[in-house]
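User: My instructor asked us to take a sequence, write out its structure as tokens, and then describe one feature of it. I'm not sure where to start. Here is the sequence I was given:
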Amino acid sequence: MNRCHAKSENYFVAAMGEITVSMCWDLVVIAKDKLNGVAAAIYRKPTDNECYNNRIKNEPPMCNESDDPNTAWYLYFYIVK
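Assistant: Let's start with the prediction itself. The structure tokens for your sequence are:
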């Protein structure tokens, strides 16, 4: 792996760590394939909103009440201000 790629990968891992912690997700496992070097991380979402409600900084904000919490695919992203 070249240095530029390693730096990019480390940035991505750090950014994912920040956002997943702010969303109250737990890192279950992170592993890198020995053959091709592809890495994968598996996160667990909380089962309730207790962690969200206790956050000091409300970022990212909770979803709108009108959002369907069971919808996972084909959603449009919108900018949160």
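For the description part of your assignment, you could build on this observation: The mean pLDDT is 78. Try explaining in your own words what that tells you about the chain.
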